[in-house]
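dude i think i finally got it to work??
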Amino acid sequence: MKRREALKLIGGTTAGILLPVTARAESESSTMITRNIPSSGEKLPVIGLGTWSVFDVDLTPANRPQLAEVLSLLVQRGGRVVDSSPMYGRAEGVVGDLAAQSHLLDSLFIATKVWTPGKAAGIAQMERSMARLRKVDLMQVHNLVDVENQMPTLRQWKTEGSIRYTGITHSQLRGFYEVERIMRNWKPDFVQINYSLMEPQAAQRILPLARELHMAVIVNRPFGGGGLFARVATKPLPPWAAEIGCQSWAQIFLKWIIAHPAITCVIPATNNPKHMRDNMAAGVGRLPDAKMRQRMQELVSSA
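look at this
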């Protein structure tokens, strides 16, 4: 079930327990939480934007304003991180075009990936990504594809100043063992991994290792590929959501993630301005403590 479908079912049951208008306004004006990148000390806002699927489009007069608004909202609400990949079809070019047109390039922290075997092929692919996006702050090896050949190039590009950070990514539990090995062997600046109330396994070894090795962590699949919305589709928002300023299930799911001290940024993907506003609101205000995070887990597990 997609988020928009779940929200239609949820909508009527949550209206009575949303925060008051004044509280919502205060929340929107609050400062976005930031976390340090351990290798540099640079601060990143905890909520970013993923582009898988949703930015893989031909820009048209019909969709350009909507996608431009999503990018603008990211910056207006205190975010910076946009994550893409050549695997995502046209997404890199769309991000680059819209960011340049909207004069947002200097405000964005742009991350993308190399996703091909072979050193020469990797260099060619990364050069295409750089041209499409206009700039790249973080280059990551996507799903560890030929990581042993690609990481030396990433290190060289960082030394030369072509990129500012190196990273690795994976989005499946089956890759965690190899992710750990690469983290120890190559010590990239960032590791990007799947982590959510539906897929919490990264907390067992990956997140502690990232803290031990002083690596930043980007979280993908924060909604479990949409599965979390399906689980709560018929459930009202719990009354205790107001205690941490949550007005939606998406905010509960995101706050659970960023409450973990190892997390630097989470990148929910959307092309919907309404969802973008909703996501960004999760990055302000109070975060759940350990007891509340456990309550959240129990609620989703029982759904």
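The CA atoms of residues 60 and 122 lie 30 Å apart.
im so relieved honestly
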